[in-house]
Amino acid sequence: MPSASGPRLAVNPIAYWNAGTTADRSTANLGRAFEELSGIGYTAVKADVPSDMQPGRYLTWLESFGLAPALSLFSGQFADVTTHQAVAEQARVYAAAQASFGQRFCMISTIEKEGSPRRTHPAVGFDSDPDRLKVVVDGIRLCCEAMKAEGVQAALHTHVGGWVESEHELRTVLDDVDAGLLAFGPDTGHMSWAGMDVRQVLLDYSGRIVGVHIKDTFQAGIDRAKSLDLDYDSATRSGGGIWAEPGTGQLDLLACVDAFRRGFVGDYMIEVDIPTVPLKECHQIAYDWAVANLEFGQ
């Protein structure tokens, strides 16, 4: 975890394992990514165990690249009350692994399966329902309690394509779940795509932010996706043009960071789901932007 003296720069290697037609989280693929990322200068990566590795080997393997584990993310589905206990157990197991890596926080998010209403009509709060939202809040609260039992505090991470997508839904969850159970782990890109007043939300909940995904967006891509009612994958992959390397899009990232940076000691996590340039160049652009605009330790 970052020291109490200040924040840390980290990176999510999602662009590497998500580059093909199917996800590749193998040690071979992630190992190549980590060699490249550490060569650029990154010293911490999102703490995700490769698909072909036992958790007990993860830290030693990661350290062989000169990297440390950074804030991770548990994704669950919370709209069905009958599955709440099972999802909470999954969250507990995930938190236990994170605790073994020395993590004190872990993001929690909801994103629905492909073909679901929110993924078919993303970023517009499709089929919003207060009764469903209450069920989702209850499910998230149960997961928070399960994670806390393992010594890990959950941090809400809103994501386009899930039932916590709009600004109203985000605020409802944070207002209804006690801050002692649920911190805040925002994603500037997903908040921007969903049409939130990103800076104001970050300002209003600044005291609960323990980590942030630094992600830029192209407004033209957002406008195109909404006007054509593109589904999630079409909006982000097939020439959708939503995700941008930090500093190259239209989101005022510095204004966003300024809303909470005073006293912040968590992870600034670079995340570009779909790069506009080759992978190494993408992450070099992001690293250079961070060095020029953020204050962080190694």
Topology:
Blueprint: E1 8-11, H1 14-17, H2 27-40, E2 44-46, H3 55-63, E3 68-70, E4 73-76, H4 84-100, E5 105-110, H5 117-120, H6 130-148, E6 153-156, H7 167-176, E7 182-184, H8 188-193, H9 198-204, E8 211-214, E9 216-217, H10 219-227, H11 232-236, E10 243-244, H12 253-258, E11 267-270, H13 279-293
Parallel strand pairs: 1-11, 2-3, 4-5, 5-6, 6-7, 8-11
Antiparallel strand pairs: 9-10
Helix pairs in contact: 4-6, 6-7
Which percent range fits the helix content? 40-55%
User: How many domain units?
Assistant: 1
Provide the gyration radius in Å.
Answer: 18 Å
Could you state the order of secondary-structure elements as H and E?
EHHEHEEHEHHEHEHHEEHHEHEH
Quaternary structure type: single chain
Average pLDDT, rounded to a whole number, is 95
Number of helices: 13
CATH class category name: Alpha Beta
Largest pleated sheet? 4 strands, parallel
CATH architecture: Alpha-Beta Barrel
Structural class: alpha/beta
Biggest sheet strand line-up:
4-5-6-7
Total strand segments: 11
Summarize this entry quickly.
The chain has 298 residues and is an alpha/beta fold. The chain contains 13 helices and 11 strands.
Please explain how this structure is put together:
With 298 residues, the chain is α/β, with parallel strands linked by helices. The strands form four sheets. A four-stranded parallel β-sheet has the order 4-5-6-7. It has a three-stranded parallel β-sheet with strand order 1-11-8. A two-stranded parallel sheet has the order 2-3. The chain has a single domain (8-293), classed as Divalent-metal-dependent TIM barrel enzymes (TIM Barrel). The model has no long low-confidence stretch (mean pLDDT 95). Strand 6, helix 7 and strand 7 (182-184) form a beta-alpha-beta unit. Helix content is 42%, strand content 13%. The chain is built from 13 helices and eleven strands. It starts with 7 loop residues before the first strand and ends in a 5-residue tail after the last helix. The chain is globular, with a radius of gyration of 18 Å.
